[in-house]
């Protein structure tokens, strides 16, 4: 019996996986597609929202539990963590980081790998380092791939989307980090995106998953989404950039991370085969 298709996310901190993949996981897991996540740190340096029950000493354990709960909300059971320290990933041994990612890929055998775009979306150095390590690890992984041809995507926020979020913040009375602020983010040029997933049907489920990260509830982005159900405007779609195989001129936009493989969640087609019965997500 063929193993199910697997979509894996690789990120730096707890909640990165929810912002990026909660919507797609919510669409795909019910179709029999398996989700897996590897997170480099346990968010030791993160915020601690009032009422979350966490302390600086317990924050790593609490944030690990929050990520597991968030992923359970969208049906993902395979959640692993590295032993890197939040805020120090950029200075960590790149070989060790790459090895950690590669071992995860070898264990999980994903057909689709997703990480943040090279600028880290918010320019956070930890995000940038994990993306670089994931690129290197994927290169080794795809070189040794067997009958399946893995695909690699960046998750990001388009320039227009980032501008829309900030406009939403101004209209709602929330000051979000600007482009020149630490972790403000510029967005990625809109024309670089190759895959747009309509997640409107599972937007509330994705928002519930994000709410599992209770320690981060005081973050201005969280507060904005919770105000007057602004999450509806943010979680209606997710956008990705296909890195491997590289898009060819004339390729139509994708509407799912597994579109090229068919929609069964079981047997996968080789890269370049005509997709049939495509799944959303």
Label this structure with key terms:
single chain, 281 residues, alpha/beta, Rossmann fold, 36% helix, 15% strand, globular, disordered C terminus
CATH H-tier superfamily: LmbE-like
Mass-distribution shape: globular
Report helical residue fraction: 25-40%
CATH architecture: 3-Layer(aba) Sandwich
Largest sheet: 7 strands, mixed
Mean pLDDT: 91
Termini distance? Answer: 24 Å
Which structural class best describes the helix and strand composition?
alpha/beta
Domains (count): 1
Q: Low-confidence parts, pLDDT < 50 over ≥5 residues? A: 264-279
DSSP strand (E) fraction? 15-25%
Figure out the total of helices.
9
What is CATH's topology name? Answer: Rossmann fold
What do you see in this structure?
The structure is a single chain. With 281 residues, this protein is of the alpha/beta class. It has a single domain (6-157, 191-220, 237-261), classed as Rossmann fold. The chain contains nine helices and seven strands. The chain is globular and about 50 Å long. It starts with 5 loop residues before the first strand and ends in a 37-residue tail after the last strand. The model is unreliable at 264-279 (pLDDT under 50).
Task: Produce the secondary structure layout.
Layout: E1 6-11, H1 16-28, E2 34-41, H2 59-73, E3 78-84, H3 94-108, E4 112-116, H4 120-123, H5 125-143, E5 151-155, H6 159-172, E6 195-198, H7 203-211, H8 220-226, H9 231-234, E7 237-244
Parallel strand pairs: 1-2, 1-4, 2-3, 4-5
Antiparallel strand pairs: 5-7, 6-7
